[in-house]
Amino acid sequence: MIDAQQLTKRYGEKTAVDGLDFAVKPGTVTGFLGPNGAGKSTTMRMIVGLDAPTSGSVTVNGRRYAGHQAPLQEVGALLEAKSIHPGRSAYNHLLALALTHGIPRRRVDEVIEMAGLGSVAKKRAGAFSLGMGQRLGIAAALLGDPQTVMLDEPVNGLDPEGVLWIRNLLKALADEGRTVFVSSHLMSEMALVADHLIIVGRGRLLADTTVGDLVREAGGDTVQVATEEPARLREALAGPGVDITGRAGSEELQVAGLSAREIGLKAAEHRIALFELTARTVSLEEAFMNLTRDAVEYHGSTTVDPLETAARPA
């Protein structure tokens, strides 16, 4: 379990992490989300003692990371896949870690097989592609058979087979009762693998929730309906848990709390003709973008003014 209490990190006048309170519990995959510059990497570095908090605290399984006698067997972390000696083979890199942490040599062979590195285990890691470097970093994180696994952007550079492998691996680790904490910018993957979400923006906690609850709060499943008799349809559909919105004078309504089938049956029962009946599901990406809209530090421009471009000096 990872427990952060008022965790804060400042670099001069810049506050990278601002009073975070959260707990990452065992038995679930917890996604750690936020825009670039939100403080995710800094938070992860503080969890494993690479950065010291300015104030507040963070513990893993009840202790600070540095307080564990065998930290690699408590927390397995991937923060930077390429942080290995380029001239060392994958096998020797893992063997060096094992021998300096009291981990049996046989475990090196186990994680090499687990990560699909068997065919390149004796090759120099400096020649690895980004994807193979990710696999080696994950193998190192799992070397101590830790109860807590923390991975920063683990699918970065992986091919589709590798992405599927990571997805299944994370679920399997959580099913074994381990604490799994994963950061990613790929909302589609988080929607498939995460049970819980911790979302930050500008260093502050924005949400500590489940995927389902976040999507539901963002609008969840809605149905767009069009009819010449919106007032009658509102009356026919009204009931507990049903939310109906629409502009005054418009024939279009947005209905939450009823399926398209249920709406269609109700309309037929009251002899109300429908012109449109379209079900729409809010994606995790949409819910995330909506939540973090005011916390994005780096905005890209989607349009370029040709007059402005022409006026720029060469």
TrEMBL record:
Coiled coil: none annotated. Residues 2-227 form the ABC transporter domain. It holds the Pfam family ABC_tran. One of its GO terms (molecular function) is ATP hydrolysis activity. Keywords: ATP-binding, Nucleotide-binding, Transport. The keyword ATP-binding applies. The keyword Nucleotide-binding applies. It comes from the Bacteria. Belongs to the ABC transporter superfamily. This is Multidrug ABC transporter ATP-binding protein.
